[in-house]
Write a structure and sequence with these properties.
Structural class: mainly alpha
Low-confidence stretches: 490-507
Number of helices: 17
Strand content: under 5%
Radius of gyration: 25 Å
Order of helices and strands: HHHHHHHHHHHHHHHHH
Length: about 525
């Protein structure tokens, strides 16, 4: 294993553990919010967060990757990087405040205007926070970055849920209170990240490299914009479609609440595989700058394989037991309405994972335009497909199917570009076996009825079945278990496992006996 591959494994493990905690905190949020706000309030909050998340994730992703790339390259200086990011944060806040009435009018939802304007401050804070995290990523300080992820998840959960409860009681608007609590959590994270990075000379550093940095951020923002529109556009489009079909606001919010509950599980693969993308991006960029083609092939192959196997495990579990999972977390009503939505939605998100990994490699190789083109093509399919969907449950399932079609096109184009950039680096056999496992899981029967705790038995059994199927298909071998064991031992600070004594004969006893014979001969003389 090369040094870059070992760094990929260690960094991915740390960030993966932090991401697991982050997703656990997100699960707590999504379980508590419908109870605190009601299903209609939960749906309204989803309509607020969907457009905010598009802008937020674009700015955060571009800021983090540009800061990571600049830190790894050593130019421009840290002061220039942070000064540019602060300016971008202020511009984002101003643009969102101006655009909030347009977004509210597009969804025909005047009640979301005030939370949208308040959420502009959250996006500005996250831009600065992402730049600081990007500096840590560029320094390959993955442990500090993972610790920040855990802290951010904890503060965000407290702010979102606590703010929602207080907002419902004191302000008469749970979504407004939830956004306010998240803004307070974002401000706290900026302070903590700044203490870790310890930036200096932010406003006194020279302007060398500023233009190149801004150009790079703009290019990264284009790719991030397309990716995050793919992630969030479905909720915005559903709100628009329901309004055009003359659905009552409460009924529309309720349907979107059911769809958002299904998103909680369908997005798990993408969110967890993001830990691999965050580690893979700086390593690919570093190896590419050195011109190590064979090392680049191995690194891309291993990163893609890790991401696809992880996504297969999670999607297999969700697709096998959609009813029990929804019933456990959201109750019988959401399980009944969402069981036929979650399966195609989770399968669609598996395609998004594959396309997102390929796009990450393309961006790291400097081929941002090709990654943007692949995502824009998939987005066009999704937006065009929503014109023909109906309302209610049929609209939710139709949106999931069109998402799958758009994500499939994005993945196809991204891999077509990647094959030309890095030949013989794609694990085609892994893709085929993953598709087989997910296809089998999709056909298994599932029901929304039954005890609420059934998911605690069904989900682990489905995970074991997925792993067993991958092993029988030859994808998960003994070498993978050895690598995993060595990685776990290294994280725990334990020495590597000794070789089997059955097959290894130590030479030490032989040397001791020879030395004893020499000593006896000398004494006899």
């Amino acid at each position: 294993m090369s040094a870059s591959e070992a760094s990929l494994a260690r960094g991915s493990t740390r960030l993966f553990a932090a991401k697991v905690f982050f997703l656990g905190a997100g699960l707590v949020q999504q379980v508590l919010l419908p109870n605190a706000l009601g299903l209609e309030g939960y749906g309204m909050l989803s309509r607020v967060l969907a457009p905010l998340n598009v802008v937020n994730n674009v700015a955060v992703g571009a800021s983090m990757q540009s800061a990571s790339r600049a830190t790894a390259a050593g130019t421009p200086s840290l002061g220039v990087v942070l000064r540019v990011q602060i300016a971008i944060a202020l511009a984002v806040v101003a643009a969102l405040v101006v655009a909030a009435p347009l977004v509210s009018s597009f969804q025909h939802a005047p009640a979301i205007l005030a939370p949208l304007r308040l959420g502009a401050a959250l996006c500005g804070l996250y831009v600065v926070y992402a730049a600081l995290v990007g500096v840590l990523n560029g320094r390959q300080s993955f442990a500090a970055q993972a610790g920040l992820d855990v802290t951010a998840a904890t503060l965000r959960t407290a702010g979102l849920v606590g703010g929602g409860v207080l907002g419902a009681r004191l302000l008469g608007s749970g979504p407004l209170g939830a956004v306010a609590g998240t803004v307070l959590a974002g401000g706290s994270m900026v302070v903590i990240a700044a203490l870790l990075v310890r930036p200096r000379d932010v406003f006194s550093a020279s302007n060398d490299g500023t233009r190149a940095l801004v150009t790079g951020i703009a290019a990264l923002a284009g790719a991030q914009l397309v990716t995050n529109l793919l992630l969030q556009v479905d909720v915005v489009l559903l709100g628009r479609v329901f309004a055009l079909r003359s659905m009552a606001p409460g009924e529309a919010d309720r349907s979107i609440g059911v769809y958002r509950a299904c998103q909680l599980f369908s997005l798990l693969p993408y969110q967890l595989v993001a830990s691999i993308s965050l580690t893979l991006f700086p390593l690919v960029a570093n190896v590419h700058s050195r011109g190590g083609h064979r090392e680049l092939q191995r690194l891309v192959r291993r990163g893609l394989r890790m991401g696809v196997l992880l996504a297969t495990l999670l999607v297999g579990v969700v697709v096998s037991a959609p009813g029990p999972l929804l019933r456990l977390t959201f109750g019988a009503e959401v399980a009944r309405l969402g069981i036929d939505v979650l399966r195609p939605l989770a399968t669609a998100q598996a395609l998004l994972v594959v396309g997102a990994l390929a796009s990450t490699v393309l961006v790291a190789l400097g081929q941002t335009r090709r990654a943007t083109l692949a995502g824009a093509s998939g987005l066009a399919v999704i937006v065009g497909g929503t014109l023909g969907i109906g309302t209610g449950e049929h609209a939710l399932r139709g949106m999931a199917l069109w998402l799958g079609a758009g994500f499939a096109l994005q993945a196809f184009l991204a891999f077509a570009f990647l094959v030309r950039a890095v030949p013989r680096a794609l694990p085609w056999s892994t893709f085929a076996r993953a598709a087989l496992v997910i296809g089998v899981a999709f056909e298994l029967p599932s029901s929304a009825e039954g005890p609420r705790a059934a998911a605690l038995v069904v989900a682990p059994a489905a995970g074991l079945a997925v792993l067993a199927t991958l092993a029988l298909a030859g994808e998960w071998s003994g070498a993978d278990y050895k690598r995993l064991g060595a990685l776990v031992r290294s994280r725990l600070g334990r020495p590597p496992a000794p070789p089997s004594r059955r097959w290894v004969v130590s030479a030490e006893p032989v040397r001791r006996r020879a030395q004893a014979r020499k000593t006896r001969r000398r004494s006899m003389r």
